[in-house]
């Protein structure tokens, strides 16, 4: 798994993808920092992380995930994955953690907003860490969805469109039908912006991630059997 992780992580920064993602992410962070904190004269960063997750992930996640398996299939290197001594679960988790690492690095850079508001007020560092924990869990769930989409096709554009469509549907699923609330990512990110760790939200996000990771492993295992 770690060999896959290192390979994938390096690939993000040996190409423009990693830098583009971080640049877009920081731009989104900065816009919402101005709108939610500076504009209101508030030291509360809950809105910053909530709205960045709500809108930023729809841009960032497809860029990070659309090439995961689709590019391997199109370039013909998928055969190396399918015949690799690394288990399929190890391959899937390695790719997922590599994409998550890019987000975590950018998230750590967002600490600069804490230091900015700390100059004007007295924000609670523990609450900010809760915001970040929630952001990481939501990001992981979103990445697992994008990774699953990438495993379904060899076309990166189609993979990206499927990811965006599912994320939009997920964001507004509970508005369409209350019975679909369990499929809504943001439904499990309501208390984190208030600095509260809810066990039900943590379990919900981990369950969504596990479900789509399992789906991805099943798809790739089936392809391995066919090959």
Written description of the protein model:
The chain is mainly alpha-helical and 227 residues long. The chain has helices spanning 2-13, 17-38, 46-65, 70-75, 78-82, 88-109, 111-120, 125-151, 156-176, 199-226. The longest helix is centred in the C-terminal third of the chain and has 28 residues, at 199-226. It starts with a helix and ends with a helix.
Reported for the largest beta sheet, the result is: none
Gross morphology:
globular
Secondary-structure-based class equals: mainly alpha
- Low-confidence stretches are none
Q: How much of the residues is beta strand, in percent?
A: under 5%
> How many β-strands, per DSSP?
0
Number of helical segments? 10
How many distinct folded domains? 1
Mean pLDDT level: 86
Q: Could you tell me how far the N terminus lies from the C terminus, measured between alpha carbons in angstroms?
A: 22 Å
Rg estimate, integer Å: 18 Å
Helix content: over 70%
Write the H/E string, N to C: HHHHHHHHHH
């Amino acid at each position: 798994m770690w060999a896959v992780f290192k390979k994938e992580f390096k690939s993000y920064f040996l190409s423009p993808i990693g830098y583009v993602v971080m640049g877009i992410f920081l731009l989104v962070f900065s816009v919402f920092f101005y709108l939610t904190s500076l504009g209101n004269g508030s030291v509360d960063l809950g809105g910053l992380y909530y709205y960045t997750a709500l809108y930023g992930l729809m841009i960032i996640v497809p860029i990070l995930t659309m090439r995961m398996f689709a590019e391997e299939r199109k370039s013909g290197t998928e055969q190396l994955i399918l015949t690799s001594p690394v288990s399929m679960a190890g391959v899937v988790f390695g790719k997922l953690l590599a994409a998550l690492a890019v987000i975590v690095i950018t998230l750590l850079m967002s600490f600069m907003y804490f230091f900015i508001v700390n100059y004007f007020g007295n924000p609670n560092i523990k609450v900010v860490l809760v915001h970040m924990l929630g952001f990481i869990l939501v990001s992981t769930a979103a990445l697992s969805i994008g990774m699953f989409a990438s495993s379904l096709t060899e076309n990166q554009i189609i993979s990206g469109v499927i990811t965006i469509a599912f994320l939009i549907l997920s964001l507004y699923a509970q508005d369409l039908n209350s019975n679909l609330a369990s499929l809504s990512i943001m439904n499990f990110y309501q208390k984190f912006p208030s600095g509260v760790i809810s066990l039900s939200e943590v379990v919900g996000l981990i369950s969504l991630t596990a479900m789509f990771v399992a789906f991805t492993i099943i798809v790739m295992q089936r392809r391995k059997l066919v090959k």
